[in-house]
Amino acid sequence: MGHNVPQIFTQLVVLEKGMPRGKLTEEQVRAFAEEHLNYEYQMLLATAVELSNPGLVQHIKNSLLESFTIHLRALIDFIWEAQKLREDDAVASDFFSSPDKWFQVQPNFPAALEPARSRTGKEVAHLTYTRLDVTADAKRWHIVDMANALTAALVVFAKNADPACLGDALAALKKA
Questions:
Q1: Would you call 61 helix, strand, or coil by DSSP?
Q2: Quick one: which H or E segment has residue 15?
Q3: Count of domains in the chain?
């Protein structure tokens, strides 16, 4: 009862931050950006807008919040590489002729996003006993602040990335 797992996923390779990874072509990186990077950002914005609706029923609000946090976390890990990368992880430095060019302009990690990494893991993606300690006040997510902080970082990325690699992705942010 085997599954047809693509070859790329049959071996888990974890790399330290900044380690060289397999080089993708401009076309591959551009195709990724135009489809997947755009999707992550559009979903982040769409869920943030929908969450501003005060009339949402709780289960819809929860679903939107979970979606927002997952897209937020994916974009955080894209802009500010996780300490341990898998060989197939897409990161912002892939869109530059060398990772150092991105690290020279990469914005500092904003305070508004500090809670997102751990909270998404502990409160959304995994069942943890940490949830027992989260007070009603601490459950609030600062959606607008987080979306704005991520957008500001993506503007820096979009304005500095190799245009041939970015293609039409994040077009509005390039002009911001």
A1: helix
A2: strand 14-16
A3: 1
Cα–Cα distance measured from residue 38 to residue 145, given in angstroms and rounded to the nearest whole number: 20
- Whole-model pTM? 0.83
Residue span of the structural domain in which 97 resides: 25-174
Give the model confidence (pLDDT) of 55-111 as tens digits. 999 999 989 999 999 999 999 999 998 777 888 899 999 999 988 999 999 999 999
Residue 7 belongs to some domain of the structure: no
- For 20-166, strand residue ranges (E) read 84-86
Among the listed residues 70, 49, 84, 72, the one whose alpha carbon sits nearest the alpha carbon of residue 146: 72
Inside any domain, residue 9: no
> Is residue 148 within a helix (H) or strand (E), and if so which, with residue range?
helix 143-160
Contact 124, 66 (CB under 8 A): yes
Q: Within a domain: residue 16?
A: no
Q: Is residue 154 part of a domain?
A: yes
With cut-offs at 50, 70 and 90, classify the pLDDT of residue 136: confident
Q: Nearest 5°: phi and psi at 13?
A: -115, 120
